[in-house]
Specification:
The chain has ten helices and seven strands. It is α/β, with parallel strands linked by helices and 316 residues long. It folds into two domains: 3-227, Spore Coat Polysaccharide Biosynthesis Protein SpsA, Chain A, CATH 3.90.550; 231-301. It starts with a strand and ends in a 15-residue tail after the last helix. The relative contact order is 0.11.
């Protein structure tokens, strides 16, 4: 099979049929052997009923339905697990992503050898606050990951099938799939300017809490990609640094006290200095960080995935 199109759905009953017909037209005209995978993320409207109708009239349409709303990442991961196409494309179900971009995205994967291609909505039809925060997010993500993409959160992305079978998307990690792919060893990540259409039906399903979650997830992904196999490298280093700073500060206060005594001067109490408490706190925090790293290493040692590595090629 040439292509799998994965579409997370949450209360988008107005757009599902129109989107499915559009994808079919594009794939038929391009002679692309395709499948469309709708994942209903616990919709409370008629979305699932419409998906069943689309599947009844077109055997290339498949559907999965969650018992409740688990989030976009869970829907994407379910689609990844069940995708059979050589190229896998994800897109949103609100018609803001154009299926006309499918041939161009597929070409970058099949002909140009990219592992992952992310869409870039260069001209967006979103509110000003969403555009502003998105630029801030993307700038931070570029800086922390070293991946030069303008729009990490664009729902329109294309992957080689091997990529989607090698990564696990959970929580709210769908925003940072390129970072997960890079960590898995897929380094050829590209970008394509895509058309962003104004929302035709309904309203956005994301609130202000997505901004907070986005940054928390960025920190999580940063930790996972760099220190998941060796947490002591992070916590042990920070803990040692904090402990040494506190120890040096306490040592300075101790030496100062001894100099007063040596010169037969009335020495102030060490505990009268605020630096004593700052130093003591730093040493305690440093010890806790070091122990956190040690416990992380113990958990990692007993993990069934501690030696799970992706093998690219094999010769018998």
């Amino acid at each position: 099979m040439d292509l799998s199109v994965i579409i997370p759905v949450y209360n988008e009953e107005e757009s599902i049929s129109e989107l499915a017909d559009w994808i079919v037209r594009v794939c038929t005209s391009g002679k692309i052997l395709y499948e469309i995978i709708f994942v209903d993320d616990g919709s409370s409207d008629s979305s699932w009923k419409i998906i069943l109708q689309e599947a009844a009239k077109n055997k290339s349409v498949k559907g999965f339905r969650f018992r409740r709303n688990y989030g976009k990442a869970a829907a994407i991961h379910t689609g990844f697990q069940n995708a059979a196409g050589d190229v896998v494309i994800t897109m949103d179900s609100d018609l803001q992503d154009s299926p006309d971009e499918i041939p161009g995205l597929m070409k970058m994967i099949t002909d140009e050898g990219y592992d992952l291609v992310s869409g870039w909505k260069k001209k967006r039809f979103d509110p000003l606050i969403k555009r502003t925060t998105s630029k801030f997010y993307n700038r931070t993500a570029r800086w922390s990951s070293g991946i030069n993409l303008h729009d990490f959160n664009c729902g329109l992305k294309a992957y080689r099938n091997e990529v989607v079978k090698s990564i696990e998307v959970y929580g709210e990690m769908h925003r940072y799939i390129p970072m997960l792919a890079k960590e898995a060893g897929f380094n050829k990540i590209g970008e394509k300017v895509v058309v962003h259409q104004a929302r035709k039906y309904g309203v956005t399903k994301y609130g202000l809490d997505r901004f907070v979650k986005g940054y928390l997830d960025l920190l999580t992904v940063g930790f996972i990609t760099r220190f998941s196999k060796s947490p002591m490298h992070l916590f042990g280093s920070l803990g040692t640094l904090m402990f040494l700073l506190g120890f040096i500060m306490d040592g300075y206060l101790g030496v100062k006290k001894l100099l007063y005594v040596h010169n037969n001067q009335r020495a102030p109490l060490v505990t009268d200095s605020p630096y004593f408490y700052i130093a003591l706190t730093a040493m305690i925090i440093g010890t806790l960080l070091f122990l956190t790293g040690f416990l992380g290493e113990m958990v990692n040692r007993n993990s069934s995935e501690r030696n799970s590595y992706l093998i690219r090629d094999k010769v018998n």
